[in-house]
Amino acid sequence: MLAPEVEGRPWPEQVAIDDASYRAQLAYLFDRSAFYRDKLTSAGFASAEAAGGLADIALLPLTEKSEIRATCTPDNPIGGHLCATPSEIVRIYSTSGTTGTPSYIPLTASDLDNWVTGSSRSYAASGVTAGQRAVSSYNAGPFVAGAAIEAFDRIGLCHIPLGTGNTERLMSAVELLGPEAAILTPSYAAYLIEWAAERDVDLAASSVTRVLVAGEPGGGEPAFRAKPEAGWGARVTEAMGIGDIGVSLWGECEEQDGMHLGARGFIHAELIDPETGVAVELDDGATGELVLTHLQHRAAPLLRFRTRDHVLLRLGECSCAQRLSHPARE
Ligand SMILES: [Zn+2]
Predict the structure, then answer these.
(1) pTM over 0.85
(2) How far is the CA of 212 from the centre of ligand 1 (A)?
(3) How far is the CA of 253 from the centre of ligand 1 (A)?
(4) 318: CA distance to ligand 1 center in Å?
(5) Are 247 and 145 in contact (CB under 8 A)?
(6) Are the C-beta atoms of 259 and 299 separated by less than 8 Å?
(7) Is 100's pLDDT higher than 80?
């Protein structure tokens, strides 16, 4: 664990801290977010005080990605939820989106720092530690995954960036530099096994003992995991983020039994029935669509954002820290 005082914090204590953050976030939204001021006022909440605390969050309206998109204009291509001034914004990522038009994701310096903090906890949950070497296939590019690269620095890894499409260079680095970890998408991790087999390279005998996968769903599913674990001779763990909310919010630990919330304190997670939108009780074993709320965000915070990801919630103790959820995407 990278931050035991945070990651090992009893959940009721975390909820109390999050409740205070949430109330401050709501006040910020009423002050700075034209989108949420209108949306909440229309829903009958005239002020942050009227909207209450986390215990009442399910009374507030959900946010659909399409609503945000509908507020984008030539003058404000980011959307009506933009709260920060241009001078406060230090990074703008974009998502590819399904409609062809990118969505822009602005971050202030504190937003970016929080993203990197959460992401570093999620990746460190896998067991990688400062001083170890890790090859990665992530391109910084326009996508939020670029922020994960800063998380590798935060952990203190010796990061060996290879980018995508450099298979020979990556395999040479594995052979010559002896990294303990490889950080890849699940599909690329699988491709490299085939690539190695075709060239009689014994990947399972390499120095890599941990393969960290992210960027695509399914990396933590037992049916997927068996093959890369055998092919790499390594433990495979998954990390997951939601582009609009944060990079690598969750990460799997060595127990390989669901992901922990690395972004503790930065986001609040809820489950809803995807058909009705009604909140689901957060009991152990609960399933539903993940709905996320920023707690300390500044540039373009989201409230009760529908992720369209379906997850299973686990609340039992884990040998490393408290378990929050095991996303099993459908
Ligand atoms: Zn754990």
Answers:
(1) yes
(2) 15
(3) 5
(4) 5
(5) yes
(6) no
(7) no
